[in-house]
Design a protein that fits this description.
This protein has a single domain, classed as Immunoglobulin-like. By secondary structure, the protein is of the alpha/beta class. Helix content is 18%, strand content 44%. Keywords: Copper, Metal-binding.
Length: 119
């Protein structure tokens, strides 16, 4: 926790001094770690801001899984035991449903995640 706080202060200082452009800092965005296992995404609800980059870090625990948000044309998949990332910038507000995009068994159709995008 302390290391994150220190690195955040260092980044802020570099931005204020003009060494790191604000755009580069904004592109860093929010990183959200999601664990997929039959038939669940943890966490099951995530909230992000419109116009801010988001990196989804998907880890598959038991079998191959994927996560797709049709509304944003975003998809990521990971094999059993793997972690994969995808970065996107939400361009609209609302609540959107992400679904498992790799068939993982009988409960596959109920494997969903809610993405809340706010202003």
């Amino acid at each position: 926790m302390l290391l994150k706080r220190i690195s955040g202060y260092v980044l802020l200082a570099l931005i204020l001094c003009g060494i790191v452009p604000r755009r580069a800092a904004a592109q860093a965005g929010k990183k959200i770690e999601i664990v997929a296992k039959r038939y669940d995404f943890t966490p099951g609800d995530i909230t992000v801001k419109k116009g801010e980059p988001v990196t989804i870090v998907l880890t598959s625990k038991d079998v191959d899984h994927g996560l797709k948000f049709k509304d944003f044309n975003v998809s990521v998949s990971a094999k059993k035991g793997e972690t994969k990332e995808v970065t996107f910038t939400p361009d609209k507000t609302g609540t959107f449903v992400g679904q498992c995009s790799v068939f993982c068994g009988s409960g596959h159709g109920s494997m969903k995640l809610s993405l809340h995008v706010t202003d």
